[in-house]
Each structure stands twice: as C-alpha cells, then as structure tokens.
C-alpha cells in the first residue's frame, strides 16, 4: 500500500475518533442529541481535518 494512502487512512481514523468522542461528550454533558447540528458540522470538518493531517504528516523515505 502506498505510504500516502496509509497516511490518509491514519488521518481518517484520527479525525473519526475525535468526532465520535466530541459527539459522545456533547450528548453526555448536555443530555441533548448531537444530531443534526453537531454531527453535520463534524462531517464538514472531517474532510478538512483529514486533509490537513495527511498534508502535515512527516514524510518517510522508502
């Protein structure tokens, strides 16, 4: 697997974990459903976060 794809997948996993944790904490603290406002905002930010993590990740020389 190309390392660029590995870096992008790692960024997707990282942003997914942060999004899930944020939605859970919001629900836990407020008692309100995070749908649709918070979840939809996270989906928009998800792509930007994954892209920024992939772009700024350290480069390997293989």
End-to-end CA span: 12 Å
H and E order = HH
Average pLDDT taken over every residue? 80
Helical amount: over 70%
What is the CA-based Rg, rounded? 14 Å
List unreliable stretches of 5+ residues: none
Spell out the blueprint of helices and strands.
Blueprint: H1 3-30, H2 37-56
Helix pairs in contact: 1-2
Description:
The protein is mainly alpha-helical and 62 residues long. It has 2 helices and no strands. The protein has helices at 3-30, 37-56. Helix 1 runs antiparallel to helix 2. The longest helix has 28 residues, at 3-30. The chain starts with a helix and ends in a 6-residue tail after the last helix.
Features:
2 helices, mainly alpha, 62 residues
Entry summary:
The protein has helices at 3-30, 37-56.
């Amino acid at each position: 697997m190309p390392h660029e794809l590995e870096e992008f997948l790692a960024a997707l996993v990282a942003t997914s974990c942060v999004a899930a944790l944020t939605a859970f904490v919001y629900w836990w603290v407020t008692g309100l459903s995070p749908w649709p406002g918070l979840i939809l905002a996270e989906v928009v930010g998800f792509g930007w976060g994954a892209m920024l993590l992939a772009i700024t990740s350290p480069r390997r020389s293989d």
